[in-house]
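From: lab user (bench 3)
To: helpdesk
Subject: output format question, protein + 4'-deoxy-4'-aminopyridoxal-5'-phosphate

Hello, I'm new to running complex predictions and I'm not sure whether the block I got back is the full result or only part of it. Here's what I submitted:
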Amino acid sequence: TGIWQNVPEAPPDAILGIAAAYKACEHPQKVNICVGAYRDDNGNPYVLPTVRKAEYRLLEQNEVKEYLPIEGDRDFVYCAMKFAYGREMDIENHVAAVQSLSGTGACMLGGQFLAQFWGSDHPIYVPNPTWGNHIKIFKQCGLKVRKYRYYDRSKNALDFEGMLKDIKRAKDGSIILLHACAHNPTGCDPTMEQWKEIVSLISSKSHIAFFDSAYQGFATGNSEKDAQAFRYAVSQHVPILLAQSFAKNFGLYGERVGTLSIVCGDVVQKERIMSELRSIIRPLYSSPPRHGSSIVKTILMDPALKEEYYQECAKMAIRIKKMRKKLEEALQVAGSIHDWSHITKQIGMFAYTGMDEAMCKQLTEEFSIFLTTNGRISMVGLNNSNLTYVANAIHTVTA
Ligand code: PMP
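Helpdesk reply: Thanks, we reran it on our side. This is the complete output you should expect:
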């Protein structure tokens, strides 16, 4: 029957479309530097050894498959909050937190909560540029999405003045979305001194800070350091929401593990917020999946496994930093006379090269190197086997 004949075709997701094109490509030297998941030095997906150990333990313990509570696994959420906010934080009295469907689900829950209880007349400001899904998520929540200046492409650096001006110009009580660390796509974070100014401005404007923490530990290799921006905001009593993802730092991408938390004044507020978050979750997906959160909990509750985990996470961050250095060097060796120093100054999974759309397209069409057209390259898609090929190609299209 033809009742759906008027359903239009939705635009394809830019990033998932590139992955499909890469898969279909038959070029022997094809490279995927669009990928947003860690690869080892042979270009293969990677499961952290502590994650495997935790899985064996769960099997041995005959873990059951019962439903989790609506708000998720309480022990997991507690560990996750300590991981995010630090040992000192009074989680019991000041943090309303629920398990979420990874970082994406956390942004969605936070956006819905804000639309309902802060009011959709308060716009949410996201950095320009930002992770593309932010805009779609917050629009879907019914929030007005605006942009603040973040990155100066002409200088390949943070546009700090522009950022402050836009946050200042936003009407009081706006929501300011901030990437906790390893900004995606630019790899460019404010310094701690700059964070202090940002937080103080947010406070003076009575804004709400919504931190998206998708890379804690994955940026510097140190999960304490990567949490310092939002921990500082908490210390200054700025109202914050935190979307936390365990996709990258624990390599649990497809397991969909995360949390949404809201720092609040007292335990009465906390319990009310929890009840409202449950009311948002129940009709959406009833309760979150349990395997991934069981893994994270198993690791974080065992001091020995936790220590091992920290080392493994640091190793991933170190490999990425090494590839940055190697890419900068390989570009020089290829003969490029451009200043590529921003590649090693940037941090996290991605490098924002400054290449324009035409250059990116040429990389794909002539060299079968697949990337997004904003010039962002995934550092984890690079390895010792493809580095020279990619550097030579980048030199060719930017010469
Ligand atoms: N926020 C940012 C900034 C991201 O880069 C990502 C992952 N690409 C996410 C959130 C969410 O990812 P996930 O839902 O897999 O945790």
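A quick orientation on your result: Residues 36, 102-104, 131, 179, 184, 212, 214, 245, 247, 253, 258 surround 4'-deoxy-4'-aminopyridoxal-5'-phosphate (CB under 6 Å). Let us know if anything else is unclear.
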